[in-house]
Fold this protein.
Amino acid sequence: MSASAAQPRAEAAASAQAAGGAPFRVALLGHGTVGGAFAVLLSERAEEIERFNGRRPVISGVLTRSRGEFAELLAGADLVVELMGGTEPAREYLLAAMHAGKDVVTANKQLLSQHGEELFETARERGVRLRFEAAVAGAVPVVRVLEESLSATPIERIHGIVNGTTNFILTEMSAGASYAEALAQAQRSGYAEADPSDDVSGRDAAAKMAILARLAFGTPVHLDDVLYEGIEQLSSDDIEYAREFGLGLKLIGTAERREGGVSVRVHPAFLYGGHPLASVVGPFNAVTVEAEAITEITMSGPGAGGRQTASAVLGDVVSVMTGGARPPAPPLALPLVKDVANAFYLHLDVADHPGVLAAVTKELGEQQVSIKSVVQRGMSENARLVMVTHPVRESRMRAAVQAMAGFDFVRSPPRTIRVIEEEFI
Ligand SMILES: NC(=O)c1ccc[n+]([C@@H]2O[C@H](COP(=O)([O-])OP(=O)(O)OC[C@H]3O[C@@H](n4cnc5c(N)ncnc54)[C@H](OP(=O)(O)O)[C@@H]3O)[C@@H](O)[C@H]2O)c1
């Protein structure tokens, strides 16, 4: 039986001694990209882990669709590591393991973002540990930093690039590729699945932001509560124009305190050059945590990949073995705020007739949208009006865009992209 969640490190060491240096048995559910890499990494690192911990971790059994039997694996394990993915039967297996008093480790963001509270509650009730560092940003240790290093710091905001596939695609688009070319390149390089919809729609990032919001603010956030938009509608033109305003384009997840509640969302956003996430390129992940006491801390690194993700999973295993993890905190109830204020980039294809700019600014003014900068390009029937606004409620910007789409001089649906205004230099 595993050490209880509240057990201090000295007791964990004592229980290792009581185990007489017996192997620490890890049941591995899933042996694909991450599971296979984890098994290799564990055997490579077992001796070193035994040296400081007194027990050698060993894989006591493996479950795949064609191999192993769950009940048998569970009976012979000290810890269950779930690397299957999907919500079922992963949920059922993790609950069964915790009910049997076993600690568990998972990398499963879909499961945690949809059934997190049930799993956390079970872990608390049974006094077992539930670790999930690899579920949010691969090898980037953001879960541990929020749970431990910053546990006494009231977090104000988290911004994250938590999907490497979309960051790779946007990096390629910034270098001149079209969306279709950049996606094809991501697939050839192994950064995007054959079916990339979870990544490019923003849903994968939304699952991760739901988990981060729960950690940072203590309030349960279900995947369905996260507003998300993907990158499929972006054009190289948008990136080109934004560059003129000194902006770069990223798919950004945001979790922040707003108006007595919490707002969690994922959407493409322009960043000024001074934002720490502006320089994150290629398939990397990065998370910026903001709080009054710390100003800003940014962590970045590989967000996926078998060996990289496996290293975060093995870190969780060691944390369980050494008694370093605390049980998940009980939930707080904070309202989820949906209609927040953002600065916007606005792109209009217009016929350049007298009075066009006046009509556009009048409509924006009626919705209390104030303009920070504006660029006009082209002439006669093919002019483009590109603006950056000051922060305004999303509902007001939507209303203005809807009205402008009806103007007879507007040639195609107006496009908007949010702008993140913070800079830390
Ligand atoms: N890949 C990454 O870079 C990455 C990064 C961060 C987090 N993750 C997370 O890590 C987890 C694993 O991802 P992966 O990329 O390693 O997946 P994968 O390559 O598809 O491997 C999944 C493994 O789980 C097994 N499996 C799936 N459903 C099962 C079932 N119903 N019963 C028994 N075994 C089952 C599969 O068995 P078969 O071999 O028989 O098909 C396979 O061995 C997911 O939660 C994923 O979100 C992955």
User: Anything to note?
Assistant: Residues 1-9 have pLDDT under 50 and may be disordered.
